[in-house]
Every structure is written in C-alpha cells, then in structure tokens.
Design goal:
heterodimer; A: 251 residues; alpha/beta; 7 helices; 27% strand; globular; B: 252 residues; mainly alpha; 11 helices
C-alpha cells in the first residue's frame, strides 16, 4: 500500500508567560492510501490538536507532515475535516452548502453535483431547507455530503458523531461505510469511542494521556459488515480499553 | 384573537392615562394644557390643511438620506475594521471617543459647516447613526465562529467567495441590529435638529406651535405622531429579521 499521510516526530506545546504545556509529544505515524485509521485516546489528551496539525490549521513546533510525500503547508480541499461541532453554514441552504466548495464547476454543474450527493446521504427533498430546520443527524449527513462533493483524497474526522444520540450515531457509521464502499477515500478518524473505532477502522492507534504519544497500534483485520457482538470484537475492545488504562471488567 | 387578548393590558394602561390626563386638565381648569379631545381636533386641523403630511415628509426625507448615507459608510467600514486588525487598532480608539458625543453637541458645528438648510440635519443624522452601525458590524465580524472560517479555508475558496458566502452573511444579523439602533437614534435626532432653524419637519412643527400662540394641542399631536412613526420605522427594520437567511441567529 502506498503511503498517503506520513507524520514524523511532531511536537506541540501551548504556553503563556514562559510556562509551556506540552500537548503533543513526538508523534509519528503513517496512513496508507485508501486506509481507514482510527486514533483513540482519553479526552483532553491532545487528539484535536494532533488532528488540527495534520489538516494544517495549526503548525507543529517541530517535526514534519507529508501528504503524498510532499510537505503539507496549509489546509487544502484534498483533505476535508469533519469536526464534532460541525461547520455547515447556517445562513446557506443545504444545496448552497453542498455547492460551497465547488469552485471550478459551472453553475448548472454545481447544482447537479450538490443534488447527487444530497441524494447519496438521504437528503433528497431537503436541498432548499436551511440547517436550523434539520435534525442533528441530518446536519451530519449534509456535512458528509459537502465533504464528498469536492472528492477529497483524505477525510479527516474529529469525533464526527459523538454529539449524536446512540441510535443516530450507529446509523451514521453504517451510512459512512456504505458511502466509503462506493467512493474510496483515505480516512483518519479521531474518537474516544472504542467500539466506533473497531466498527469502522482498518487500524487503530491508541494515544497516551497528555503529552500525547502513540502508545499502541492494533490491526482490526475483520471483514465488513462487522458484527459488534462477536467474540473477536469484544476481545479487541478489551485489549484497547486495557491499553487506555480502563479496568477490563468495567465498561 | 390571541393578539388582541395580549394587547389588552397595554391598551388598558393607555386608556387609564388618557382618562387621568383628561380629568386633571378639567379639574385644574388649565387654559394652556389641552384635553385629549383638543389634541384630536388639532390633529384633524393639521391633516385638513395638508401641513401634517408636509412635515412628516420633510422629516422622513432627512432621515432617509442621512441614514442611507450612514449605512453605505458604516457597513463596508465596519467589515474592514472587523477583518483587518491593523485598521481596528488604528481607528477604533478614535471612534470610541467620537461615539459618546451627543449629536446635539454637533449642532453648532453642523450649522457652521452646512448652514441652516437640509444639509445640517442630514449631517447630524449621519453622525448619530453611523457609529452604532460601525460598532455592531465590527463586533459581528469579530464574533464569527472559527469553525466556519476554518471550513472556508479548508475548501480553499477565493477571497470573493469567502466574503460573499461566509463573512457577510455571518455578520448580516448583527448589521440588522445595528440598523435598528441607528434608525432609532436617527429619528430621535431629526426632531431635535429641526427644532433649531428649519421651516419644516415634525421638530419644527412642535417648536413653531409653541412659539406661534401656545398651541399645545399641536405640540402634543406632534409628539404622538413622532412616537407612532418611530414605532413604524422599527417595525420595518424588524421585517428584515424575518428573512430566511438570518433566521438561524434569532431562532433559538
């Protein structure tokens, strides 16, 4: 597998008045082309900071980030971030949101592409609606559709479904897997939900508490569709929770 | 039906005040202070000879021009100050000093610069409404949530698209708030400005009614009309808040 993302020894600290709080400590990782990698870690461990550096919103203090072998300078539409809070523009309709990143298309084309992806995520009939008229799950669908519409090579997801209720969360995971089966993308998912990581990812990296490092890596190696109640999944879950320092009898 | 029921307490208060006013005028046998009925007949007189419409028209024209000029200056300037940190740091202190100066304090300078024609009140309206709108627009830019700016950055849109589809629509609800404040102040100021030197407008009507024979019925008629038109202007501004593209800001 060709390497898509290569992170070499990045560090990041935030400081004021001379006191620096080291948040990310020497993280190195690689993600293969078309691979789905999940990164799990305790809350407050610096997951989001790590993600923002890889996407390009903030710069590491040291270390390098290569995409397709070339240094990544700034965020690009070839790698779209979907965050927990979401960033669907509330002042644009669903269709206008989906057309937002389509700069190079003629106007009529944009509408066609937007409507195609709206239908793909099950938002057909809601193209003219404003975001405040939609439910949380529908907003996530719109966000996925807006990302897929620009055909990004990499999808960065930072706790994308953790603000949703359990049922909608599960439904969105299945939806994501269905779309990924249709359109191949490299995906990097950050989550604190171990079950979500096992459900979706090919490989799972476990982060240590702050300052964060990569503490362990697990290959999932299970075929989709995965049965979350199967013994293999349970075994993996226990192993990851143990790595996270959670008692194996708890949870 | 619900609306009528909800407005009942307000109507009752107004009715009680009118009754008290009427009673006190009769009891004290005042020769100058009019009864509510005298105000009504005074208003009818003004309507009949057409002067009321002339005064209302003159005041509205001055507010219309002064306020429109203020919007044209304040919105681009506010966006620029909000977006460019250097501009904000350089100009904001100046605006913070100019802003608390009452428009009334500008009257002598307005007369010096613009004489006693229409230009003076228009200038005063401009000065009074431009600052609140600049402040609101700038604050609007400063409070755009970072996730939206990051999303725009992520999708790599042009500067033009960034402003047209993200910055301006994100600030628009704040601009509307600024316009409501600005128009409210403008209406307050036009009446004060017209009391100084002009021969038309509702402010002139009030001062002239008092000077030319103590016509206090017309003074009060003028005051009530000013209040009602002010309410109407704010209602027009509020219509902007029901636009679909700004509902998100007021929906919760």
């Amino acid at each position: 597998m060709r390497t898509k993302i290569e992170v070499n020894g990045i560090r990041k600290g935030f400081g004021s008045n001379g006191a620096t709080l080291q948040v990310v400590e020497d993280v190195s990782l690689t993600v293969g082309d078309g691979e789905f990698v999940a990164i799990v870690g305790p809350s407050g461990c610096g997951k989001t900071t790590l993600m923002n550096m890889i996407v390009g919103f903030i710069q590491p203090d040291s270390g390098s980030i290569l995409i397709d072998g070339a240094p990544r300078a700034e965020p690009k539409p070839t790698g779209i971030l979907i965050s927990q809070q979401g960033s669907i523009f509330p002042w644009l309709t669903v269709q206008q949101n989906l057309m937002f990143g389509l700069n190079d298309h003629p106007q009529a084309d944009k509408k066609g592409v937007a409507d195609h992806y709206a239908a793909m995520v099950g938002l057909k009939g809601f193209e003219g609606n404003y975001p405040h008229e939609l439910s949380g799950g529908m907003l996530k669908r719109a966000e996925l559709a807006r990302a897929f519409a620009v055909k990004p090579e990499i999808l960065y997801m930072d706790e994308p479904f953790s603000a949703l209720d359990a049922l909608t969360n599960l439904r969105m995971r299945n939806e994501l897997l269905r779309i990924l089966a249709e359109e191949r993308h490299t995906v990097m998912l950050i989550t604190h939900d171990v079950e979500e990581a096992i459900h979706l990812a090919d490989r799972i990296m476990v982060l240590s508490p702050r300052p964060t490092r990569i503490q362990a890596t697990f290959d999932v190696g299970l075929r989709h569709p995965r049965k979350l109640t199967s013994p293999e999944v349970q075994e993996l879950r226990v192993a990851i929770l143990h790595e996270l320092g959670v008692d194996r009898n708890a949870g | 039906m619900k609306r009528i029921r909800e407005s009942l307490p307000a109507m009752a208060v107004i009715a009680v005040l009118l009754a008290a006013w009427w009673l006190i005028v009769i009891e004290t046998r005042s020769v100058i202070f009019p009864t509510p009925w005298q105000v009504v007949t005074g208003t009818a007189e003004l309507i009949k000879d057409g002067t009321l419409w002339r005064h209302i028209g003159a005041s509205l024209m001055r507010v219309g021009i002064g306020f429109s000029l203020a919007v044209l200056v304040a919105v681009p300037l506010g966006l620029w100050l909000g977006w460019v940190k250097g501009a904000y740091v350089t100009l904001n202190p100046l605006f913070q000093i100019l802003r608390p100066i009452s428009p009334i304090a500008w009257i002598p300078i307005a007369i010096l610069w613009f004489g006693v024609g229409n230009a003076s009140p228009i200038y005063l309206i401009f000065i009074s409404s431009v600052f609140p709108m600049i402040v609101q627009t700038t604050a609007g830019v400063h409070t755009i949530e970072r996730r939206y700016l990051r999303a725009a950055q992520n999708f790599g849109v042009s500067r033009y698209t960034l402003f047209r589809q993200v910055v301006i629509p994100a600030v628009f609800p704040q601009i509307i708030v600024g316009m409501r404040i600005g128009l409210g102040v403008a209406w307050l100021v036009v009446v004060a400005a017209e009391m100084i030197a002009l021969r038309s407008g509702l402010g002139y009507l009030i001062i002239d009614s008092r000077n030319a024979g103590n016509r206090y019925d017309l003074v009060i008629a003028g005051m009530i009309i000013i209040g009602l038109i002010g309410l109407l202007l704010d209602g027009v501004m509020r219509l902007l808040e029901s636009l679909k593209s700004v509902r998100w800001r007021y929906a919760h």
